[in-house]
Structures are given as structure tokens and as C-alpha cells.
Structure prediction request, 232 residues.
Amino acid sequence: MNVPNHVAIIMDGNGRWAKSKGMPRNYGHLKGSANVEKIVQTASDMGVKYLTVYAFSTENWNRPEEEVSALMGLMRDYLKTCIRKAPKNNMRVRILGSRDGLSEEIRALIDELEETTKIYTKINFQIAINYGSRDEILRAVRKIAADTAGGTLKTEDITAETFSSYLDTHDIPDPDLLIRTSGESRISNFLLWQLAYTELYFTDVPWPAFTKKELTKAIEDFNTRQRRFGKL
Prediction:
């Protein structure tokens, strides 16, 4: 089986999964967070070199304050877990998204995590936190405009590759496969530039119930696709 080099996942359905079991939404987020660790290990064992997950979007700030607070608490705890387990898993972790709006504690944990894991090579794990692709693109445009105005970048030298170098994913290959769980068939402002030639896979299975078997099914489906990268 041809394993994609880079898999991206929109982890959807925590709240609906919890509701189906008569539990509060935050219970779903707790179980969803626990499942991230399992899927990262599974992907690594299968030979995936890059795994990117959509953990908290710029739009998620609009959720009820109690839910946002719980999500931030889970995020803090998971970052600490990553710091502790990354050496054993030989896992490099990078965070995509804006640091604006994040607490000082979470920003410090992100810095520590990225610094301490940069030497690891088995799997590259990207977590999108306070991430929105339109926001990412706007931030890139502002940086390009500033560099052009400052004389460090010429307008005629701006290419697709140049633009990519200003994105949060500047040294990460584009995803080969995007998976979205829980039945929705949209990409929700996630990696808009990077998904130009990515294969899309949608499943009704909610994220807390997404297992190795489900990941294997997604990759098997990926293997049925004819990858042409925009060429006829």
C-alpha cells in the first residue's frame, strides 16, 4: 500500500459524538484529544512522515466561553504531553496559526515544544491552533508587502514558491491526503493554499471513534486515485 507522505485531518464531531452518548460536549473534546495521540502513533507506524491536525480554528473563539476555556485547558495539557513523549516517539512538533489571543502559558509551551522537538525525525506533527487559512494568507501578504517596501524583496521575484515560503507551512510539503471526519464535506478555512492538489476523503465516523481501521480505509481509498497534480 502506498502511504501518503503528508496526511492532514480536520478532526470534527467531538460534540455530536458526546451528545449521542448522552454526555456533554466537553466530554467529546476530552476523548477527541486522547484520540489524537493514538492516531499520531498509528500514522507514524504506518510510515506517514507528516501529519497535520486542525485543533482550534480562528472561528472557534465564537463558541461559548465555557467550551473555549475547556478547549484551551485540553490544549495546554496536550502540549505538555507532547513535550514529555516526543523523545520516545522521535516526533518533531510544530504549531501552525497565530499566537495572538493565546495565553502566555500556551505560547511558552509552544516555544518549548518546537525548540525541544526540532531534532526528531521519524514523524513531523503539525498542530493548527488559532489557525484560519485566510488569516494565514493575510499574514503572509502583509509580510511580503513589508519586505517589498523595505527593499528586501522585489515584486518581480514573487512566485508561488516565494509566497509559500511566507506561510506557516513554509518548510512542510503540501498534504497528499486530507481527511475530514463526522460527515461534513467542506474544508472549513483549513490549508486553502496547500490543498490545491490534495486528495479529499470524507467519512461519517466522528473523530473520537476514528481508529487505525478508519485511517487505513482512508489510505486505501487514496491508493485508488490517479494523482495528476493538475495535468491532463
